[in-house]
Task: inverse folding
């Protein structure tokens, strides 16, 4: 999205090309690792001997745990197996270009050292050391961008409390204590920027009724003032639903990118930066009874589908309380990495498809008057022939990306037909590079 409307709204009118400069690496990256890690990994979906329904990081809410009881978890949290270098390597080898880790989730517990509270990993746990800075250094050593998630909703902070119906979510802000909480939040964010210098601040928990649009704009403006190159998502204002803050480009706070709550058209949302975050199973934070793991083929198809519509894929892992990424996650990351080593060219630096194809997805890379369409064949044709519209482009040559073998291209003004090997290759070998020109 051109950040200009948001910049103007936030009082920091930056020329659109500055916003484009800021977003350039993010648009090229296309694929990142989400990490949900915190005290909730200790109960791992179970409380007082009872399995709790729902996502693991919400256990304080789902089991309705009083703050003083939940605080006991900190005494157990000692991730002695935490190996930030191994985590960064796993992301790198999966073909991911950035890492977004929870610095503070809804339970208010901080994985970084903060002067604002003792409810952090340094003061409250036997581990006693900052967790984020080592990961930021490990990510940079692997050439990855380090980014942090931060929840506005905070079930631990005394200024926020339960709603009238007794639920933490959506939490309320106590009478006359909103300014106090915003000051707390701003100080923590300044500490985060100072200690681990994230490239993206990924906000969440922006839905409680007390959080209003002007506060979103204020927060955006505050952060823009601290770090002009910082990328901020749209979960700071109320723009999340359908990304109205982005796709309609209104003067409300818009943020640099959003997470769509609706289907994205096959040819993407022109001028809008968006990211789809997903789990590999059915929880963000670790649950000991993880099940419903998605197959690697599904995860790769998600990546391809999202990139074909001009979006980024932020794929989650939920480490254990001991500090280990679950083996089932590592296995999928390694397999995705194999696919990316062969086909990464069809994802990185691509933009939304100019055409809709029924038998797969298409990503595009432009280079002046030339360029390439990357055709991801999901349904290999039995008769060995694939046809699709040219979208105003001219077809040149075609090859299998995996081994460069030439494919026959027959084209008219409006469409092209490829003749393929009858035998469908493995998914890892089923991406076709169609060179095109615009004149
Ligand atoms: O409530 C959170 C949830 O725990 C998780 O962090 C997801 C990730 O996008 N965000 C919120 C639900 O939308």
Result:
């Amino acid at each position: 999205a051109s950040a200009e409307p948001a910049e103007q709204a936030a009082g920091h009118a930056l020329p659109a090309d500055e916003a484009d400069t800021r977003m350039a690496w993010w648009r090229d990256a296309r694929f990142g690792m989400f990490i949900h890690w915190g005290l909730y990994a200790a109960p791992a979906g179970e409380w007082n001997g009872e399995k709790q329904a729902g996502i693991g990081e919400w256990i304080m809410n789902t089991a309705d745990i009083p703050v003083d009881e939940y605080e006991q978890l900190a005494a157990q949290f000692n991730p002695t197996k935490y190996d930030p270098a191994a985590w960064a390597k796993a992301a790198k080898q999966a073909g991911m270009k950035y890492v977004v880790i929870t610095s503070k989730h809804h339970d208010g517990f901080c994985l970084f050292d903060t002067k604002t509270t003792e409810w952090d990993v340094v003061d409250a746990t036997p581990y006693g050391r900052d967790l984020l800075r080592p990961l930021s250094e490990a990510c940079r050593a692997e050439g990855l961008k380090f980014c942090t998630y931060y929840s506005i909703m905070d079930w631990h902070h005394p200024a926020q409390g339960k709603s009238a119906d007794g639920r933490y979510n959506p939490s309320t802000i106590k009478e006359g204590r909103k300014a106090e909480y915003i000051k707390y939040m701003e100080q923590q964010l300044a500490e985060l920027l100072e200690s681990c210098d994230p490239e993206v601040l990924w906000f969440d928990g922006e839905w409680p009724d007390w959080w209003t649009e002007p506060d979103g704009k204020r927060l955006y403006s505050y952060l823009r003032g601290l770090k002009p190159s910082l990328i901020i998502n749209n979960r700071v204002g109320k723009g999340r639903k359908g990304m109205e803050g982005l796709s309609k480009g209104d003067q409300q706070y818009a943020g640099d990118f959003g997470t769509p709550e609706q289907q994205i058209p096959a040819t993407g949302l022109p001028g809008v930066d968006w990211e789809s975050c997903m789990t590999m199973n059915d929880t963000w934070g670790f649950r000991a009874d993880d099940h419903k793991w998605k197959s690697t083929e599904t995860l790769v198809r998600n990546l391809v589908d999202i990139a074909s519509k001009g979006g980024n894929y932020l794929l989650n892992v939920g480490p254990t309380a001991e500090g280990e990424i679950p083996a089932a996650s590592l296995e999928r990351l390694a397999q995705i990495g194999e696919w990316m080593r062969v086909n990464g060219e069809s994802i990185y630096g691509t933009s939304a498809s100019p055409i809709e194809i029924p038998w797969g997805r298409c990503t595009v890379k432009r280079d002046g008057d030339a360029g390439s369409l990357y055709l991801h064949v999901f349904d290999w044709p039995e008769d060995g022939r694939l046809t699709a519209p040219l979208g105003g482009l001219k077809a040149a040559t075609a090859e299998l990306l995996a081994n460069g073998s030439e494919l026959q291209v027959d084209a008219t003004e409006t469409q092209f037909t490829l003749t393929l090997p009858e035998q469908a290759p493995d998914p890892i070998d089923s991406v076709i590079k169609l060179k095109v020109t615009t004149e």
Summary: The longest strand covers residues 360-367. The pocket of FHN is lined by residues 55, 57-58, 204, 277, 284 (CB under 6 Å). The radius of gyration is 23 Å.
